[in-house]
Amino acid sequence: MIKKFGEVTMINLSDSDSNIYVVGNTVIDAGTGLNFTRLMGFLKIMGKKFDDFEWVVNTHGHFDHVGGDGYFYNAQIAIHEGDAGIVEKGDQELSFADFFDADIKPHKVGRKLKDGDEISGLKVIHTPGHSPGSICLYDEKNKVLFSGDTVFAEGRGRTDLPGGSEEEIKKSIDKLKGLKIEKMFPGHGNPVTSNVKMVLDKVTEDFY
């Protein structure tokens, strides 16, 4: 499935893959890599090829988001320094690749991101809780947030996996609530194109 939201194109390959977002010459998350033919077909529909991209930015190091990184072979990989080791080492355990009955291959990380960095016109917001190196990417000009697995249209990211933290994800979502957001593109499920503040308020109700 392909859906276009202005300058943002969302690709959904399967229930197991993360959403893949294409913004200009940047890919945000790359799915599992287990649906290569389908992804290639979708890119062709978009008039794109795997070698057209400059950056693949991973919102965190779990396999359903990083497994497809290597297909974008001309692109550099960017990921927060807290999860970079998962990609560099091809860490089978911390990527949860076994959950997908898959093997993760190590890849060079071109840029280790920190909170407040900017990449491809997007501000890096460190939002640990789902994983130590989870990030969101914020387009301040257009009030757009790519929220990874920190928060979704109908909930928030899991904190019961190794490296997860209930306390940290609460702080992370509170940080997001301080931003002006009109559209939110999560790592799974449907985008939120209105009432983002209401969604963020709702997913934090169970914290209190």
Could you estimate the helical fraction of the residues in percent? 10-25%
Which regions are unreliable across 5 or more consecutive residues at pLDDT < 50?
A: none
Q: How can the largest sheet be summarized? A: 7 strands, mixed
Provide the CATH top-level class.
Alpha Beta
The CATH architecture comes to 4-Layer Sandwich
CATH topology descriptor = Metallo-beta-lactamase, Chain A
Q: What overall form do the CA principal axes indicate? A: globular
Give the percentage of residues in beta strands: 15-25%
Strand order of the largest sheet: 1-2-3-4-5-6-7
Keywords:
single chain, 208 residues, Metallo-beta-lactamase, Chain A, seven-stranded mixed beta sheet, 19% helix, five-stranded mixed beta sheet, alpha/beta
Can you offer a commentary on this structure?
With 208 residues, this protein is of the alpha/beta class. The chain has a single domain, classed as Ribonuclease Z/Hydroxyacylglutathione hydrolase-like (Metallo-beta-lactamase, Chain A), CATH 3.60.15. 19% of the residues lie in helices and 25% in strands. The protein has helices at 36-45, 63-66, 84-89, 166-176, 196-203, and strands at residues 2-5, 8-11, 20-23, 26-28, 55-57, 76-80, 111-113, 118-119, 122-126, 135-139, 144-148, 151-152, 155-156, 183-186. A 7-stranded mixed β-sheet has the order 1-2-3-4-5-6-7, with no helix packed on it. Strands 8-9-10-11-14 form a 5-stranded mixed β-sheet, with no helix packed on it. It has a two-stranded antiparallel ribbon with strand order 12-13. Strand 1 (2-5) and strand 2 form a beta hairpin. The longest helix has 11 residues, at 166-176. It is globular. The model has no long low-confidence stretch (mean pLDDT 96).
